[in-house]
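for the writeup, i need someone to sanity check this before i put it in the appendix. the sequnce is what the collaborator sent (i think, or maybe the updated version? ugh). structure was predicted straight from it, no edits. if anything looks off just tell me and ill rerun, i have time this weekend
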Amino acid sequence: MAYENVLKNPDNFNFEIQQLGEATYANPCSQEIFVDDSEKIIFSSQIKNLNHQLETCKQLPAFEKAGARERIFHNLDTTRAAIITCGGLCPGLNNVIKGLVNVLEQDYGVKEIIGIRYGYKGLTQQSNQEPIQLNSSVVEQIHKQGGTILGSSRGNQDPEIMVDELQRRKINLLFCIGGDGTLKGAQAIAEAANKRQANISVVGVPKTIDNDLGFVEKTFGFETSVQVASEIITSAHHEAEGAENGIGIVKLMGRDSGFISATASLANSIVDVCLIPETPFQISGPEGICAAIQRRLQQNNHAVIVVAEGAGQDLFNNSESRVDASGNILKDDIGELLKKEITAYFKQNNLAISIKYLDPSYHIRSVSANAADAVFCYLLAEHAVHAGMSGKTNLLIGYWNNFFTHVPIHLATKERRMVDLDSALWRGVISATQQDKHP
């Protein structure tokens, strides 16, 4: 894991944030408490790790603290901002858009703000969609709706062409809202712009419903997803409870990390088995899922299984991986496989069951953000604008040890964050479900 490597070899990880140049203009945000670049948020909060790092490294690994700077880099008279959303939908996208527009317009007086249509494709000649002119009136009500008013898409585009388009439109602030692939695209744009000395600040707002971005403790939309998923688990439980030998299977998002499945299972402790990508499992055999479910049916007459979409992929016999437009490996349907194998097992043992399979992924990701996520989205947007106006680039706004931070994109996309099987979260799931670590 990258985190363990930071603790062992902190000097191998660069937390430095790129700056376009000297910030010479006064910040017009008179109500702000300004932050200095020297203010840092320490990577490790445990004393034993700090003591080790003090003995072994030249400089303690730490994030630059996010917030408004007293001096800004971009000239307010010539600043033009663009906002882009990429990848799959996620609760809170419109909240972030609204926050960016309001802070740019009301705090900094930026008059030219555009929304790029349908992801990075909107920054190429392949697109026939003109950007949307954004202001506070346009975005006033958008936080009430799910999805994104800008549209989204997957797929890589040539960063040189995208920088051409940004320069043609005289954009010097680009806010990229998206996950791992989007942020890698933002990094490519920032690097291409830097080579031209184009003075374009590229700032990411991390959007991954799976909460699996490295060096970021929490991403927006996750809390809403867990809340909605928990409600769907309740529905699956009612379905299972209402039938003799009823079994409910709920498949949730999580291609490589099981944070939503684990957290939703712990939030709604009626789950009998939680399956995530981080730990393997068997379907058949005395230690398999089928045998475990049979034991639960004997005890309670019903059972609920929650499974992350990326769990159990080793159980499929595919020689070639399929990928989507962004290069993400497409997962085989573990929910359907579980339903098929469990049905066959109980039929073979002459036991009648009633099994229901729910896949609410598209419903969950397209709902509007709950109150907690709405607040988080606004604060992410606010700090993103402050970072961009101060001339920082090739970074995203993170959250670490209860502080908003500046995270170099190369760090956040270095390695996916995964559920630690020794963490309090997973131990809590094991305690609540009473399943073995390898059921």
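The chain has two domains: 2-220+368-412, 223-366+422-433. The first strand starts at residue 18 and ends at 19.
thx in advance!!
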